[in-house]
Amino acid sequence: MISSAYFGGVHLLPHPTNTHLRPPRSLTPDLLHSFNTPFELKQVHAHLVKTNTSLSTLPLSRLCSVCALTPSFAYAQRILDRLGKPDITFWNSCLKAFAESDSPSGAILLFYQLRQFDVFPDTFTCSFVLKACAQLSDILNGRIVHGYMEKLGLRSNLFLQNMIVHLYALCGALDDALLMFEKMLQRDVVTWNILINQLVKRGDIEGAFDFFSRMPVRSVRSWTSMIAGYVHCGKPKEAIHLFMKMEEEGLKPNEVTVVAILAACADLGALDLGRRVHDYSNRSGFRKNIHISNTLIDMYVKCGCLEDARKLFDGMEERTIVSWSAMIAGLAMHGQAGEALRLFSNMIQIGMKPNDVTFVGILHACSHMGMIDMGREFFASMTKDYGIIPNIEHYGCMVDLFSRAGLLQEAYEFIMKMPIKSNGVVWGALLGGCRVHKNIEMAEEAIRHLSELDPLNDGYYVVLSNIYAESQRWEDAAKVRKLMREHGVKKTPGWSSISVDGVLHEFVAGDESHPQAEEIFQMWGKLLQKIKLKGYVPKTSVVLLEIDENEKEKFLYRHSEKLALAFGLMKTPSRMPIRILKNLRVCEDCHAAFKLISEIVDREIVVRDRNRFHCFKNGSCTCRDYW
DNA sequence: ATAGGGTTAG
User: Where are the annotated PPR repeats, by residue (predicted)?
Assistant: First the structure.
């Protein structure tokens, strides 16, 4: 092993990847292939020039490409001047380097420059320029290159045609991309995949599936694109369905497929499938893939298995900011704010730089635990110490923090002073606080903004109606319902799901369609008797219907999470934790009931809310009733 | 030497 080398009168710092090489006897043009940093290469080159060593274009083009990567094109330019008339190989090397660098526009400049030298672009030239255009979303120059392709007789080159389709679709010129696609005499699987990916990016999942089903041949990537597309569009069930079909066809999921399907499992809380995919991933040798580990952390967190997530996180050889952020957000979601903050300071200690997402997790942790001053400090520190400009999520967290804690006036002023436009989430957080702290005036102010910002979101009207109902202002509650009807807003039906033996069972309120509905209602009846003895009083004010109290109780007892819990208790062995997922916030009455039930049946009940986790155990919940 | 898919918050 050499730590430094001195030869030929030139000091050279060894590049890390070259430390295993023996130092060469003399400084020859070949050396331009053995070193990788512009600094080393420039020194070698300077020496070669000084000793009048003759140089071929090939090593020089290598030198230029590395110089361009810096990008220090000036140096490459000097060599270019010396050469007089460099051939296309030289140009292509430089173009490639620029296209892959942080300043792809250099490639486009070069493309115009090379034509002054009477050099004819070839396939590679076009491909590198097109790559640069794609990076810059520069459709104008892309069209010019396209024109050149026609002139240069490269029009039927499949690679270039695919790049053109990609570029047009990427820049939003979907019609042009489709025209190109139709004009192509031959297409390969990549051509189809490009279109599928771009359609997914535009949110046109149906269009993407249409292409997918028309493909003559599908590769693993085609399947993966489609599966990832469904996850991206919030259709995890379809993603899993497709994944099953892919397995049926005997195709082997790769690392990217695994990431996509794990994200779907995270969305659905499908722990069984998630574990199966985890096992598959390990057997396939994907254990070291950092994307997979990160997604696994998120999957375990969202399936309610915080310990599994933590074990995985602790066992990782390398971690990125995504790993840390996912784990911190996971702890916050599970109400472990203290541990989340400890992890954050560990992260800072080892020199990992937090990003905006990390701070969303941190601020969440603070707001879930009512740590107001801590939250303020982090909010200030994020810009002061880390140069992160708060985005709407961060403002939302802060409003949530103040509102939950009852600092409604401060929350309101905070929104008014925000330097960016507020959104529904921000006012919705204030509205939520108004409900907890029974401030009708402020709630009415919030709803004024919400009916403009997010008029079709039913959740806000429901909260306001609840606030009125809880203060016995029935006419106002009725007015809100009327308002909803007028706006054509319907209450999103609440549903809960529970997975038993790998089968996902879904319940909606008052669900009698389940084959075992009879047994489920009986089970709930038994539980009800027991918790009533423990002091449970039904909280009928959460029922927003104009009916008498007895009827309200009946509605209350058919809430989807109660049905899912009763079913879970029937179908799973004693002591096994029960995991339930709900699409809305867990209802207050169910929350009170679940606490008592966890004690009576001596079971851990984990409920994933639309916001966070509630883990009921021995009569209490990890949210400490602060939610 | 040239083309397409992935994770954290909401």
Answer: 188-218, 219-253, 289-319, 320-354
